[in-house]
Design a protein that fits this description.
eight-stranded parallel β-barrel; two-stranded parallel ribbon; 11 helices; globular
Length: 221
Amino acid sequence: MNKPLLQIALDTYDLPSALGPLQKAQQYIDVIEVGTILCLAEGMHAVRAIRSLFPEKIILADVRIAEAGSIISKMAYDAGADWVSVVSGAAPSSFEVVLAEAQARGKDMQVELSDGWSWEKAQHWADLGIQQVIFKRSRDLEAKGSLTWGQQDFDTISRLHNMGFKVTVTGGVKPADIGNFAGVPVYIFIAGRAIVNAADPAAAAKEFKDAMAQASLIGAQ
């Protein structure tokens, strides 16, 4: 049975701060996310640098496209990204143009399910041929301690999977949370600060991988 992939989110303010923990943890990482903050701070230079250093890894440019989708996705793909992100509230045409760019290059896109998305919109994305979505918990609400992973989250992930999506899960996921996703079809778990800010990023990433190996998880690949 396939297991979910592990993605590291690099949301540092400069490239050296991202490369330090990444190089230590890379053996346990399947997907490298060049985070929104890093993309804003360093531009596509960050994507190019990470692509050159890790040619075998999947790289996501988390550019969170809202409009100008064709231009932004071209920039990211040309820099070496395999995937780009589009926010669920983007202009309707953005989904179509980014998907067209991705398909023309043999690459992919993800829709980030931010506040305000609906099942009607999700069905439209599925009908277009979009294959990946990101289901997340709000960082602000997470910081307040007001959210926990629960059955409603698991039901939403399963419903999205049944619509044909590969679902990435993010929002303060910890190794101790992984076992709660037993039987839930997760494609990717994202870990950011838990690895990047760890005293030992390699050990932190290994802890995630060990938890994923031990749990009864469904890798939706």
